[in-house]
Amino acid sequence: MRTPIPSVYVQGLGSYAPSRILANEELASIVDTSDEWIITRSGIRERHIAAPDETGADMAAKAAQAALADAHISPEDIDLLIVATVSDDTPVPSVACRVHSKIGLKSGVPAFDITAACSGFIYLLQIANHMLRAGDYRRALVIATEKLSRITDWTDRSTCVLFGDAAGAAVLAKCDIPHAGILGNVLGADGTKGDLLAVNPRNAPAPVFPAALPSGTHTIAMNGREVFKNAVRVMSQACRSVLAKCATDPAQLALIIPHQANIRIIEAISDELKIPLSRFKINLDRYGNTSAASIPLALDEAYRAGEIKEGDLVLLVAFGGGFTWGASLIRWQKNPEKTTPAL
Ligand code: COA
Predict the structure, then answer these.
(1) 37 lines ligand 1 (CB under 6 A)
(2) Which of 143, 169, 139 is nearest to 78 (CA)?
(3) pLDDT on residue 178
């Protein structure tokens, strides 16, 4: 008899955003902009900003604790930890290792960071999905955390109005029922377009050994128009690819959770795919673009607001610097034993 192929499902979700809110009006006192310009061009009204001493690892730990509570498990039940981030200032120890200690995972549980910019959470899902299904691990904690305020150029009005700080986490668990939970993923990258959205050293002295680059000198630089066009094209294509891979019609989708970068990008994808905007989750008005954290933050908000119910098909899609992109089709199941449809 053949062994059934196991599935991986989302057992718990959590997110965290710092309490300090920076509204468009306040930004207009920092750079030459206006509430009206930012809302019209991006849809963003406000964003959350971490405290000066609050790190990406601190935010990640809070999101992780919420996800563990939602899954009704304790840190001892986790046997793999992966973190996605682009905004931390300490490469070693990794954010994952710092979270490992903060939330008290068992000694020996592997932990590492990945970098895939705004596509980080979809990359996390794909990596953990394969590692769990390969059989060595039973339960993974995946976290996306970004303190983008640390790498924002607060003198550049074309970028500083767009970004915010947040973290989102998911507990992923393996179950022995086929075709439950994560149904399919696509990932991609195009390194030739890396310069269009990058975190570059800015006004920094050349790094001369043994002097280190001063912290805070790497900031986001972006060609907004080019990124916009590529984001619409690539995210639409990623949605089509994962739906085709899973033989799923767009009409079957209960909710689409796109990376929250700009309302006009989401509207253009809705037009492109002919899926009404009402089926897209949108919370960028309150958080701005939180890079890798944006999808788990929006997914957690939709889940806690009852916008997703057991058995629903949910499509996640992201695009980011690199360029990187990815899409995941998930059957939303907290109880796959009870709710996986018979084939
Ligand atoms: N306030 C007021 N004016 C601003 C401004 C601001 N914050 N930022 C730029 N402008 C000005 C520009 O200087 C330009 O002025 P000019 O016509 O006199 O030269 C004008 O507004 C238009 O700028 P442009 O860059 O063409 O605007 P846009 O409609 O493309 O919108 C973005 C800019 C950044 C909002 C948009 O390009 C975008 O969202 N791109 C994608 C960004 C993104 O999603 N990045 C992350 C992907 S993961």
Answers:
(1) yes
(2) 139
(3) 85
Model confidence at 67: pLDDT above 80: yes
Closest CA to 181 of 1, 13, 3: 13
Task: Judge contact between 103 and 61, C-beta under 8 A.
Answer: yes
Identify the architecture of domain 1-335 in CATH. Answer: 3-Layer(aba) Sandwich (3.40)
229 Cβ closer than 6 Å to some ligand 1 atom: no
The pLDDT, as a whole number, for residue 202 is: 64
- 278: which 2 tokens? 């009402």
Phi first, then psi, for residue 169 (nearest 5°) are -140, 150
Q: List the one residue out of 120, 209, 216 whose CA is nearest residue 169.
A: 120
Report how far residue 73's alpha carbon sits from residue 75's, in angstroms, rounded to the nearest whole number.
Answer: 7
- Percentage, residues of the chain above pLDDT 90: 85
pLDDT at 216: 55
Of 37, 41, 156, the residue with max ligand 1 atoms within 8 A of its CB, to mutate for a pocket test, comes to 41
Whether residue 312 is predicted with pLDDT greater than 80 in this model: the reply is yes
| Domain segments of the chain as ranges | 1-335
**Any catalytic annotation for residue 246?**
no
Q: What is the pLDDT of residue 215?
A: 54
Q: Is 24 a catalytic residue?
A: no
Give the other-Cβ count within 10 Å of 18's Cβ.
Answer: 21
Is 259 an annotated catalytic residue?
Answer: yes
Number of C-beta neighbours around residue 150 at 10 A = 19
